[in-house]
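Form 7-S
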Amino acid sequence: MALETANIQEKLTQKFGNKVLNFAMSRDIFSFEATPDAIHEVIRTLKVNEDFNFHFLTDLCGIHYPDNDENHQFAVVYHLHNWIENVRIRITTYLNQEKLEVNTITDLFLCANWMERETWDFYGIVFTGHPQLKRILNMDEMVSFPMRKEFPLEDSGRTDKDDRFFGRTAQKI
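Output:
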């Protein structure tokens, strides 16, 4: 039997109720949201339940939406793949700005280890229960999270470039 998006939605809604919401097709990928307290169990269900078979974590990343309300400024997005029926799914969980925490899924997917470390390193999202949550690409001494929108795009103290060469002034060379 083919894996239908309506079946996924129905079974997840039956099991998790209002902790899963906003089901939609987005760019040919079935997408929905899950609350942070339910995300681990939702992903575990999608992996272990033989009706779903999402055994491959394609990607996990963070996003910062500074213009959203405080409960939707940060998100963690998970992309799973069912290789048996070649179906992809996207799950998003939004985090409160004051509590940037979500449970780790390293117990479900070993590859989530580095993805979660990268997300913490760049956005400051804490993955509770992660076995070794530490910087992966930035220096350990760094106190900021460079992918957040409040982080400046470039060093304001740089003297080795002239903005005129980058089209940032009306002056012609």
